[in-house]
Amino acid sequence: MSERLRLADSGEAADLAAFLGRLVHYDRAAAVRLQGGGGALAVFGRPPSFDVLAIRTARLAEPPALPLDRTVSAGELLEAIDEASASAAVPAAVTGPPWAGVLPPRGGWQQLPGLPGAEVMLSAVALAVAEFRARDEALPAQHRTRSERDRIGRDIWSRTLGETDLPLRAVHAAQALGFLRPVRSTVPARTPARDALASAEPVALLACGSWLRLRTPYGSVATRRPGVGLGALQVRPL
């Protein structure tokens, strides 16, 4: 029998389902790596359009019978979530993509200065999207190719945010995955615990070795810093 996880409440189940739905939107064959123990489940995914790792945690009502570490289909896990009972059956393991064996470190993160507020970051993403569309529309018909559009995208999304080393693609990913929201978001947190978390853990930029992590109350986005070396690379068994 497949193991069944009991989430803390229906809001946690709905939030996890929303995250998985966004991943599947970008890649119908998406896989996620699950790590569960104690009172929390960590879900790692990699939306292909952004070249970052997305990390979403969910509170558990009770710990798994055994520590959980498995790579599964995001779509199958999404289908296995029962919001009414706040539970999910863990799907069978799949062959993990290469990224699933190299995850950000668990500890040793240091907060970095210089990160602007959420509204400024969202504005930067909106301006970048507008620039991409304008440059795409300005291309002559014979140059409107996938490779040329990819080149424009790399030029725009590899730019760093303000005085930090955080690339704009990480901010864009956080916004697209529902992690980065306006201060007065019209999308409410689903549970009182999420409301409390949003107040206790503001958006922050963290670093550990060659990794950067944009942390928000709703999830994190991690990416590798260019030119820093392997740093705190952690290869974990699949």
Description:
It is a single chain. By secondary structure, the protein is of the alpha+beta class. Helix content is 31%, strand content 24%. It has 6 helices and 13 strands. The chain has helices at residues 10-26, 74-80, 118-137, 146-157, 168-176, 192-200, and strands spanning 4-6, 31-37, 40-45, 53-59, 68-73, 81-82, 87-89, 102-103, 110-112, 204-208, 211-216, 219-224, 234-235. The strands form 3 sheets. The chain has an 8-stranded antiparallel beta sheet with strand order 5-2-3-4-12-11-10-9. A 3-stranded antiparallel beta sheet has the order 1-7-6. It has a two-stranded antiparallel sheet with strand order 8-13. A hairpin with a 2-residue loop joins strand 2 and strand 3. Helix 1 runs antiparallel to helix 2 (74-80), helix 3 packs antiparallel against helix 4 and helix 3 crosses helix 5. It is globular. Residues 185-189, 196-200 and 229-238 have low confidence and may be disordered.
